[in-house]
Design brief:
This protein is 52% helix and 7% strand. With 337 residues, it is mostly helical. The protein is globular. It binds adenosine-5'-tetraphosphate. Adenosine-5'-tetraphosphate binds next to helix 1.
């Protein structure tokens, strides 16, 4: 808190698939933790989702489903501004201004663009390339102080900082330079079938990920069939061959708020089978109320719309204020409204 004003937190998630326990542990758990002490803006970034081909009907459904999952994991709509990115005018306008300050070289260095564009059959469109500028606009439009994200988004927040510094230097102090909030453990939950790759909601294979709203039988099956190694000991050790058990320990530790060392002690003398069975029960127990709450909320679209209207209206006021300040600073003639 500074001068009686709460600091601002902003983050968003793309409706590109079912949210995974990676999204939860890496980002949403922090969203929930921070909601009492900060002014928070949590969006569903539907414009970002358009950087890969989407079925329009499914995209609309998944966008509402993400809002329902925000509420289901514990975000209180009375405490947080929950909204859909495309409901607020200003994100794409600011993207244009910031795009004129961002070098092609800076964008070419983004590892997420390199990863996504190198996948077989990837649609490499201009939006995928300029996505980090839209993300910078999302953050800078609201003068966010902190951005809770998983490890894969750290580089984009760093680019946002560079763009903010560049704008402030050229046109005078305007934007808050934001800082990422990245969990010490769980910032990169790995795929259960390929523990050397990140668990991603849009991966097409699917058996290596667990969605927050998956059926409990599927959840248990996926944990029990997670790839480990030929060893016996439940230990958090380095090395690619130990990536599977390391990932499972990280999931267990984060979902139960238990230090890994305590888990290692608990499982001395026990094997991977016992450990996976317990973890399957823990994940199912954690996700069942989230799934039930989500399903109830999806039957109450009127309520979701009320939440979204309130969130977008508060965000829009802030967005207009910042946009008109930016337009003035860069030399655009103010429209009389
Ligand atoms: N596996 C993960 N472990 C920890 N954190 C993760 N995040 C994503 N995957 C993991 C964090 O979740 C937030 C959502 O990010 P996003 O929707 O903007 O897209 P993303 O980072 O590209 O995440 P996905 O799930 O991999 O989406 P797709 O498949 O569409 O690319 C971010 O804070 C992210 O760091």
């Amino acid at each position: 808190m500074e001068n009686g004003k709460k600091k601002i937190i902003l983050s968003g998630i793309q409706p590109t698939g079912q949210l995974t326990i990676g999204n939860y542990i890496g980002a949403m758990k922090n969203f929930v933790r921070l909601q009492n002490d900060y002014e928070t803006l949590y969006m569903v970034v539907d414009l970002h989702a358009l950087t890969v081909p989407q079925d329009p009907k499914e995209l609309r459904h998944k966008t509402l489903s993400v809002i329902a999952q925000y509420i289901a994991v514990g975000l209180d709509p009375d405490k947080n501004n929950l909204f859909i990115q495309s409901h607020v005018t200003g994100h794409t306008e600011l993207t244009w201004i910031l795009g004129c300050l961002t070098g092609l070289g800076e964008l070419s260095r983004m590892t997420q663009f390199k990863d996504k564009s190198s996948k077989p059959g990837a649609s490499i469109n201009a939006g995928l390339f300029t996505y980090p500028i839209l993300m910078a606009s999302d953050i800078l439009l609201y003068n966010a102080d902190f951005v809770p994200v998983g490890e894969d988004q750290k580089q984009h927040v760093e680019l946002t900082r560079d763009i903010a510094v560049k704008f402030n230097y050229r046109y005078s102090d305007t934007f808050t330079v934001p800082e990422p909030i990245i969990p010490k453990s769980g910032a990169r939950i790995m795929d259960l079938q390929n523990p050397l790759a990140k668990m991603s909601k849009s991966d097409t294979g699917g058996t290596g990920r667990i969605a927050l709203i998956d059926d409990p039988n599927i959840v248990a099956k996926r944990i029990k069939s997670a790839v480990t190694d030929s060893g016996m000991e439940i230990k958090f050790s380095e090395g690619d061959e130990k990536a599977g058990i390391r990932n499972l320990l990280t999931i267990y530790s984060n979902l139960t708020d238990t230090p890994v060392s305590e888990l290692e002690d608990k499982y001395i003398g026990k094997g991977y089978g016992d450990f996976k069975k317990d973890l399957a029960d823990i994940v199912v127990e954690k996700l069942t109320p989230i799934r039930n709450k989500h399903d109830d909320l999806m039957k109450n679209k009127d309520y979701l719309e009320t939440v979204l209207r309130k969130g977008a209206s508060a965000a829009q006021d802030k967005a207009w204020r910042m946009l008109s300040k930016v337009y003035r600073k860069v030399g655009l003639v103010q429209a009389s409204r």
